[in-house]
Structures are given as structure tokens and as C-alpha cells.
Amino acid sequence: MLELSNVQTFYGNIKALGGVNIKISEGEIIALIGANGAGKTTTLMSISGIVPPRSGKIFFMGKPIHLLSPHEIVARGISQVPEGRRIFSQLTVKENLDMGAFLRKDKTGIKKDMEHVFSLFPVLHERRHQIGGTLSGGEQQMLAISRALMARPRLLLLDEPSLGLAPLIVKLIFQVIRKINQEDGATIFLVEQNANMALKVAHRGYVMDNGEITIQGTSEKLLHNEDVKKAYLGIVTAT
Length: 239
Ligand code: ATP
Fold this sequence. Notes:
Layout: E1 2-11, E2 14-24, E3 29-34, H1 40-48, E4 55-60, E5 63-64, H2 70-76, E6 78-81, H3 93-100, H4 107-120, H5 122-126, H6 137-149, E7 155-159, H7 167-182, E8 187-192, H8 195-201, E9 204-209, E10 212-218, H9 219-223, H10 226-232
Parallel strand pairs: 3-8, 3-9, 6-7, 7-8
Antiparallel strand pairs: 1-2, 1-4, 4-5, 9-10
Helix pairs in contact: 3-6
Bound molecules: adenosine-5'-triphosphate.
Adenosine-5'-triphosphate binds at residues 11, 14, 16, 34, 36-42, 193.
């Protein structure tokens, strides 16, 4: 479904991605883990066209997308939930959701999808007339995910959905990630510093260090990899 081939991305003269190769098949949840500043957000920004790669190629559904503008990439079916849950804070919950569907014309489908996101996050239904900026951090994250789902994406890019949230909310968000994958068939590319949670929900994972993929494999394999355990799961095994 998605292929990054030798993607290099720069901020001015600073090389943030040094030739990244990633493949995602339809129906998968893929986790990208790594330390602060490793290049995880830049990987998502390169896919969504916000920070286009300087070299390399990105294919989506077999077609190159690395030369397209961000809105053309959204129109192809890729939605990104940015880090820090950037919702429209002056708009109501419902208006935020309407904004997510702004490229769509199928009114019945939009209504159905709004009911669906309300069933995933009932608190958003209770607060549908509330101004986004007055929601709690967890509710804003739910809204940010729901707004992306309103575009009915083929591929959902999630940047650090657990960041700064209470453990119970994190659990709920991860349950919904699993649900939209299993029940709705959504393909998900998940960037996380919470490597443990991410690998538990994902089918496969990539570890990024200093702008390069250093380890990859099934989540099961990564959860048992000694380097991953030491560096990202906070587990030190006795030697
Ligand atoms: P974090 O978990 O902190 O978000 P990350 O793995 O997502 O980290 P990136 O945000 O992609 O990492 O950053 C990769 C590298 O690019 C870092 O060295 C960072 O300092 C640099 N970088 C990121 N954004 C910019 C920017 N707008 N201008 C210049 N350098 C940047």
C-alpha cells in the first residue's frame, strides 16, 4: 500500500532522514519507534507532503506521491493526526468533524461516519456542541483522531497519540486503534515513543535512530530483541 524508497529529507542543510525504506501492506498496523529527534515525525511529514523528501520515492497504492502537494495526498486517501492534537480550538466538536470531511460530497456517508466516530468515542457525542479548545487533552486527542477518520482515509498516520495523556486514556486510544484496524480495516502507521504500547498493538515495527531504520521485524520479534528492550522498553536483562 505504501512504500518509502531511500527517502532523504532535510531541514535546510540538516539531514533529518538519511535514506529510509519502509513498506506497509493494506490492513497492517505498523509502529515506528525511536528516541526523541530520531526522525519519526519527519517520516510522517515526508509521507503527507508537508516536508517533501529531497530525494528518494514514496509510492501509495502503486503510484508515486512524493511530488504531490499535501492536499493532493489527502485526496489520495492519507490522513495525518499530528503530534500535539492540533484541533480547531475555536470550533465545536461537530464543526471539527465536519472539517475532517471537507473533501467529501457524500452526505449520507459523512453522517454515517460521524455516527461511527461517536460510537468509538461516546464522550465526543456528549460534547458535540462544545468548543474544541475547552476539551481535556484526552478528548482533544480523540477528536483529532476522529477528525482524521472523517476523511475516510485508506491510510491513517498517527503521530504520538499517547503523548502527555493519562494511562487510562492511552489504553482507550489504543483500544480504538485496534478496533478501527480490525473492524473497519484501516491501515495505520503509528509513530510512538511509548514503544511497549505501540508494539503490542502493531503487527510489525521499525526502529529509527538518527534518521535511519536500524531494526525492523514483527512486533513479537522486536518486543524480544535485546537492543530494543534496553533502549526503548526500559528493560535491562541480567547478564
Ligand atoms: P520527537 O519524538 O521529539 O518528535 P522525532 O523522532 O519525531 O522526535 P523529528 O521531529 O522528525 O524526530 O526530528 C528529526 C531531526 O530533525 C531532529 O534532529 C530535529 O532536531 C530536526 N528537526 C525537526 N524539525 C525541524 C525543523 N522544523 N527545523 C530544523 N530541524 C528540525
